[in-house]
Amino acid sequence: MEVNRMLRNVKGQMRVVEAMITCLIVISGLTASIYLSSMYAVTEGVELEKTGMNILSLLNKPEVFME
User: How far is Cα 8 from Cα 39, in angstroms, rounded to an integer?
Assistant: First the structure.
């Protein structure tokens, strides 16, 4: 009776340890995937101004609002 209780306690503790190890693996995998997939896009201010002016000129056309 006492041995069964001790075995159940050990199994329960092992499940907790397995869950903690699994969490660490998942977190490290997500961190690595975020780090490896990050792309940095650099745009100049002139390009942003040109894009903004293009958008404004498109919105200035009445045909855009008709559609």
Answer: 49
The whole-number pLDDT of residue 41 equals: 64
3-state helix, strand, coil in the chain (%, to 5): 85, 0, 15
Structure tokens that stand for 14 in this block? 């092992």
* Between 6 and 46, residue with greater pLDDT: 46
Q: How far apart are CA 9 and CA 4, in angstroms?
A: 9
Confirm whether pTM is higher than 0.85: no
Using alpha carbons, list the distances in angstroms from residue 20 to 4, 12, 24, 33, 48.
25, 13, 6, 20, 47
Q: What would the two tokens of residue 32 be?
A: 């690595």
